[in-house]
Design goal:
The complex is a heterodimer of chains A (329) and B (723). Chain A has 329 residues and is α+β, with helices and mostly antiparallel strands. Among the domains of chain A are: 5-49, Uridine Diphospho-n-acetylenolpyruvylglucosamine Reductase, domain 2, CATH 3.30.43; 229-328, CO dehydrogenase flavoprotein, C-terminal domain (Enolase-like, domain 1). Helices cover 29% and strands 19% of the residues of chain A. In chain A, the strands form three sheets. Chain A has a five-stranded antiparallel beta sheet with strand order 4-5-8-6-7. In chain A, strand 4 and strand 5 (71-74) form a beta hairpin. In chain A, helix 12 (289-299) packs across helix 13. The radius of gyration of chain A is 19 Å and the shape is globular. The termini of chain A are far apart. Chain B is an alpha+beta fold and 723 residues long. Chain B has three domains: 18-27 and 453-570, Aldehyde oxidase/xanthine dehydrogenase, molybdopterin binding domain (Aldehyde Oxidoreductase, domain 4, 2-Layer Sandwich), CATH 3.30.365; 32-143 and 197-279, Aldehyde Oxidoreductase, domain 4 (2-Layer Sandwich), CATH 3.30.365.10; 293-451 and 576-722, 2-Layer Sandwich (Aldehyde Oxidoreductase, domain 4), CATH 3.30.365. In chain B, helix 7 (363-381) packs parallel to helix 16, helix 10 (480-492) runs parallel beside helix 11 (519-541) and helix 15 (616-635) packs across helix 16. The chains are: A alpha+beta (329), B alpha+beta (723). The interface between A and B is medium-sized, with 30 and 36 residues.
């Protein structure tokens, strides 16, 4: 960890001003940033604390109603608060479940919505400054390709990066056509599908957030069938572990037929992995295991496994089949 | 109990140090508030094999607060480094008890990735940490040897397991196999693991002239004192080591590594006390771990299950610094009666940190292989696994022919099986279910040697009636303060509250390291002997002793001085007459999701004969903790190393998985009562190590029963069951 300046922002405008230098970072819960600063992976010279913004505008840390039946998750709302919010639990079970299956109780009490969707990969090569990593040090090479890559992505990879996006919440959000509200020089809305980027030739650029922009909320649209939703996470140990495979699903079932479906996968993608391919297979079909298996095959059709993570292809399929089976039961 | 008092030994007493621990009053090594302390941070190598060409320390030296940067170029030359001054590491130069070859900046060699190659000292921890990241080393890099499956074996003469021979041969396995109708011939592997105690290895080094005090997180104050003194060219009396509480060690703190001496060197350089705490990442490599093992087990049996042949060949990795052998075949030499038993060890040098003792060293890896093979044999014979073990029950030690000092394994099988409900098991794989989940029931035998070493104790009666008992042992979380107080109280016939037991300081009588389940037997025997001697002395001074005289009167009769005795208690001829081991049985239920291969362990039932149980509560905790470790070993734990660079890849507690509460179901611990008149004066065998042994095999056997899938490579990850 290098020496850095700490600024506590009084309001959004001063936060944006303070964060206008290239080597500055916003900090909220700090559960990712401090961790990576200790490892010397993140080296901000200025850290702008935005948790203080909620004193002036409580909605930044709250769950509030949106016109039309959606919910706005304040960027500074803690994972635990959102997870246990009765409206979230009632209308978006998959969001609540994705939060409760993530991290640990202590981390969930600190980490925020905005920070969660910006968390960095757990790729061990990214986290180790002694090894090449295109995401951390552009052009240095990818150590995971040809290295130990059991936990790495099989979807959305490139020849430059195969790091898995670690967030559970983001997978649930990807399934819901969420919108990310940000403040920069001007406020703007970013559809969730456009928020995270595939690594391509530039794995160091992970989102479409511009330098100095601040997330203010994540807006969940009204999805009539989101009540019938599920986040299923498969991991090595029963708690406090990242997903090997996860599925966020919602289905609109009418008399055994699927009228609408949302499918996103976690633990397997370089970004939160919405699968329109799986949804296309599901819609209009009977909710049977054969249908679910066909959807899973469609979702993983583009999978590109590496040496140690080939098992994830079948595991992700089975996870998705199980999630669809349970949510349709 | 001459005064009719109920014995405290055996009772489930709360820890006498419990309040201190939960209130933060227990002081650990890094917490000693020394004035003017400086902070040291170790710089580690980023290659696995080669030489440090140059270390650019200019930025670090200019960084705020930096007091010194120690490198191989500028570090003081140590007169005692391997007994030579050439700077070349000499394998096993120190010999027991330390056995370690540390890396102390005496040369430019790099033996593994993450090896200490420098030390930055600064006025604050933050300054030292920041500056350490500014040190840039360049290397002459050689290709490291990292794959145990392709690397060459050591010459046999370099393979010397602790306390045994490289090979053992009892009868003739070839002819035994020829006589067998059923055979099992399989290879089992266990991965690199790291101990990960909660408390990081830490040292505060403080010089006073040419005398050194080390506040140390250790399981062995004496071995730290002796080794650090030898490295620095001091006599042991010039080094004092203090460790009143140690936050877990599990073998990694059994002896000294590099950081203790490096802290002393840094303190000398800056002429201030220096605190050095390893980072969690630095706990992977520089302070030991469990080595890989590749174990080839061959069993032959007649149709009735009688073993005609047992062969166990274990190959484990060591480092390029040392030849350290994981004694994974140890239990095979003594666990089952067979006319033909052969074992053999081999070593492979890899560019990784030196391996060392890790909970149940040898037997935890070894019972995974042997007890998995026994389960495979039971299936091949269509025989119940418990019945197979009873058929081959060793009434005497098969290797030495000696009688056991005590053995209640038969009772352990019976007790465990009854408590578990083993008789309701349908042996057919995949035959038992709980809803969608596959249910598996497995079992295995547990065993660990009952060792004892020489130990000293001083016991004193103070005028206020306090019995002050001192022994230079360690409290590593096992309950040593508590059980030693209980032993002394019973021997003297006083309540435990009157005993003040002190430990953890090399000014006290010498005791063995708290390793290998020796503490209760060794220190406990010494405490017992000292307390009995003190009682006799008191009786001599004041007939009727403490029951009839006040402490003040007794002390007055002693010329006003506390009544004091010091003893050294040693094992004797019984060591040659008897074979001494603890035994147990582990029964496990697993639930396996048939599609997702998620394995859960809802219950484990154990039954152990560990001699006299000193404290039912702390002993139960020991054995439960051993099971938790076994769950980790079976399902989760593995240190990943990059096969190109030798970097440790999961060097933190988020990625190195140990069981969390949700991974642990009920653990039902049973003790089979044993009265062992031979093992030592207090009849104790120790309960620290045996708890993990047999657990991994019991779980693997249950997974086979649940799924029909035999997993011979730990950990049993879901892809190994899915496949």
């Amino acid at each position: 960890m290098i020496s850095f300046d700490y600024i506590s922002a009084a309001d959004v405008e001063s936060a944006l001003r303070a964060a206008s230098t290239p080597s500055s970072k916003f900090i909220a819960g700090g559960t990712t940033l401090i961790d990576l600063m200790k490892l010397d992976v993140e080296r901000p010279t200025t850290v702008v604390d935005v948790t203080t913004l909620a004193r002036r505008d409580a909605s930044l840390a709250a769950v509030s109603e949106l016109p039309g039946g959606g919910l706005r998750l304040g960027a500074l709302a803690h994972m635990s608060d959102v997870a246990w919010d009765p409206r979230v639990r009632d209308r978006y079970p998959l969001v609540s479940q994705s939060l409760l299956l993530a991290a640990s109780g202590q981390l969930r009490n600190m980490a925020t919505m905005g920070g969660n969707i910006l968390q960095r990969t757990r790729c061990s090569y990214f986290r180790d400054t002694a090894t090449p990593c295109n995401k951390r040090d552009p052009g240095s090479g990818c150590s995971a390709i040809g290295g130990f890559n059991r936990t790495h992505a099989i979807l959305g990879t490139s020849e430059h990066c195969i790091a898995t996006h670690p967030s559970d919440l983001a997978v649930a959000l990807a399934a819901l056509d969420t919108t990310v509200q940000v403040r920069g020089t001007a406020p703007r809305s970013i559809p969730f599908a456009d928020f995270h980027l595939l690594p391509g030739a530039h794995p160091e650029v992970e989102t479409t957030l511009r330098p100095g922009e601040l997330i203010t909320s994540i807006d969940l649209p009204a999805v009539s069938f989101a009540k019938r939703s599920l986040y299923l996470k498969v991991r090595d140990r029963a708690s406090y572990a990242f997903a090997l495979a996860a599925a966020a699903v919602a289905v609109d079932l009418q008399g055994g037929a699927i009228r609408g479906a949302r499918v996103a996968l976690g633990g397997v993608g370089t970004k939160p992995w919405r699968s329109h391919e799986a949804e296309a297979v599901l819609v209009g079909k009977r909710a049977t295991e054969a249908t679910f298996r066909a959807a899973a095959n469609a979702a993983l059709a583009g999978a590109r496994p590496h040496k140690d993570n080939a098992f994830k292809v079948e595991l992700a399929k089975r996870t998705l089949v199980r999630a669809l089976t349970e949510v349709s039961a | 109990m001459s005064d009719g008092r109920a014995p405290s030994v055996g009772a489930p007493l709360n820890r006498v140090d419990g309040r201190l621990k939960v209130t933060g009053g227990a002081r650990y090594a890094a917490e000693y508030p020394l004035p003017n302390v400086a902070y040291a941070v170790i710089v580690t190598s980023t290659i696995a094999k080669g030489h440090v060409k140059q270390m650019d320390t200019s930025a670090a030296e200019r960084a705020p607060g930096v007091l010194a940067v120690l490198t191989p170029q500028n570090a003081q030359r140590l007169p005692g480094y391997g007994g030579n001054t050439s700077g070349t590491a000499v394998p096993n130069a120190y010999g027991p008890p330390a056995m370690r070859v540390p890396t102390l900046l005496q040369n430019d060699e790099v033996h593994y990735n993450g090896q200490p190659i420098g030390v930055v000292v600064a006025d604050t921890f933050e300054h030292a940490t920041a500056a350490a990241q500014m040190v840039k080393a360049t290397y002459t890099e050689d290709k490291p040897v990292l794959d145990i499956h392709s690397a060459p074996k050591n010459p046999p003469e370099t393979v010397k397991p602790l306390g045994g021979e490289r090979t053992s041969k009892h009868g003739d396995v070839a002819s035994g196999l020829a006589a067998a109708t059923v055979k099992v011939d399989q290879t089992y592997t266990t991965p690199l693991e790291n101990h990960n105690p909660m408390e990081m290895h830490s040292t505060i080094a403080a010089w006073d002239g040419d005398s050194l005090t080390l506040y140390e997180s250790t399981q062995g104050i004496t071995s730290v004192r002796n080794t650090v003194a030898k490295s620095l060219g001091l006599t042991p009396d010039k080094v004092k080591v203090v460790a009143y509480f140690t936050g877990g060690g599990f073998g990694s703190k059994g002896g000294p590594w590099s950081h203790e001496t490096l802290a002393a060197m840094a303190a000398k350089r800056v002429n201030r006390p220096v605190k050095l705490v390893l980072s969690r990442q630095q706990m992977f490599g520089p302070v030991g771990g469990r080595p890989h093992t590749i174990q080839h087990v061959t069993l032959g049996a007649r149709p009735d299950g009688a073993l005609t042949a047992v062969r166990h060949e274990s190959t484990s990795n060591t480092s390029t610094l040392e030849n350290w052998v994981e004694s994974a075949a140890a239990q095979t030499r003594m666990l089952y009666a067979s006319p033909n038993i052969e074992t053999q060890y081999d070593l492979i040098k890899l560019n990784v940190g030196s391996p060392t003792f890790m909970r149940g060293p040898g037997e935890s890896s070894g019972t995974f292989a042997l007890e998995s093979a026994m389960d495979e044999l039971a299936y091949a014979l269509k025989m119940d696994p418990v019945a197979l073990r009873l058929k081959n029950y060793a009434e005497t030690d098969p290797e030495s022919g000696k009688p056991w000092s005590s053995k209640s394994l038969r009772e352990c099988y019976a007790t465990g099986a009854a408590a578990f409900g083993w008789d309701k098991r349908n042996a057919v794989p995949r035959s038992m279910r709980d809803g969608r989940l596959l249910v598996g029931w497995g079992m295995a035998t547990a065993t660990y040697p009952a060792r004892r070493q020489a130990a000293g104790t001083t016991a004193r009666l103070l005028p206020d009636g306090t019995i002050d008992v001192r022994a230079g042992t360690q409290e590593i979380g096992c309950g040593t303060y508590t059980v030693m107080s209980q032993i002394a109280a019973d021997a003297l016939g006083v309540p435990v509250s009157r005993v003040r037991f002190e430990l953890g300081n090399t000014d006290m009588p010498e005791n063995p390291a708290s390793t290998g389940s020796v503490t209760a037997a060794s220190t406990g025997s010494a405490v017992n002997e000292a307390a009995l001697a003190l009682k006799a002395k008191i009786e001599q001074l004041a007939p009727g002793g403490l029951a009839s005289n006040s402490a003040a009167d007794i002390v007055a009769k002693n010329g006003g001085q506390p009544v004091e005795v010091t003893v050294t208690s040693k094992p004797g001829a019984e060591q040659q007459q008897y074979s001494m081991h603890s035994f147990g049985a582990v029964f496990t239920e697993v639930h396996v999701d048939p599609d997702l291969a998620i394995i859960r362990v809802p219950r484990v039932v154990t039954a152990h004969g560990v001699g006299k149980v000193l404290n039912a509560k702390t002993a139960r905790s020991q054995l439960q903790g051993g099971v938790v470790w076994g769950i980790g070993m079976a399902l989760l734990e593995e240190t990943h190393v990059d096969m190109r660079s030798g970097r440790y890849l999961n060097a933190d507690l988020a990625e190195y998985h140990v069981p969390v509460n949700a991974d642990v179901g009920t653990i039902d611990v049973h003790f089979v009562e044993e009265n062992d008149p031979h093992v030592n004066p207090i009849g104790v065998k120790g309960a620290g190590e045996i708890g993990i042994t047999g657990v991994a095999a019991s779980i693997a056997n249950a997974v086979y029963h649940a799924t029909g899938k035999r997993v011979r490579d730990l950990p049993i990850r879901l892809e190994r069951v899915m496949a």
